[in-house]
Q: What sequence folds into this?
């Protein structure tokens, strides 16, 4: 599963960057647990958490797609949509003033990957079972 390994590794770098951004605000505000009512910390925490919520499921679906021999083009196309969506969403909502159109676009990319991998897996399974 070399293609999934590539996207999982790149996703981990995005997650790492979002985590460092949380730690930076925690250090500056001296808030060790929770958000302490700090709006910037709250936004950065949600950006990191949202990334953690969607990423593993999409990577599992991607790995299954690769195992089910979905084409490399489809894997890369949806993988790029996944990474772009997570990066744009994470860094946009972690700002003091997010750009709502960018957030909508980023979630569209994420949902494209989520639904795309789900449908590709179902199609591949139907081919095997029928």
A:
């Amino acid at each position: 599963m070399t293609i999934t390994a590539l996207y999982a590794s790149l996703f981990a770098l995005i997650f790492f960057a979002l985590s460092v951004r949380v730690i930076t605000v925690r250090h500056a505000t001296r808030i060790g647990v929770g958000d302490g009512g700090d709006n910037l910390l709250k936004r950065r925490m949600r950006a990191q958490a949202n990334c953690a919520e969607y990423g593993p499921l999409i990577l599992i679906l991607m790995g299954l797609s690769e195992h089910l021999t979905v084409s490399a083009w489809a894997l890369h196309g949806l993988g790029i949509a996944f990474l772009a969506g997570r990066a744009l969403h994470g860094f946009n909502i972690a700002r003091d003033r997010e750009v709502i159109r960018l957030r909508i676009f980023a979630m569209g990319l994420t949902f494209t990957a989520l639904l795309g991998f789900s449908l590709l897996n179902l199609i591949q399974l139907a081919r095997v079972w029928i």
Q: What stands out?
A: The first helix runs from residue 2 to 29. The mean pLDDT is 95. The domain at 2-129 is CATH 1.20.120.550 (Four Helix Bundle (Hemerythrin (Met), subunit A)). The two ends are 25 Å apart (CA to CA).
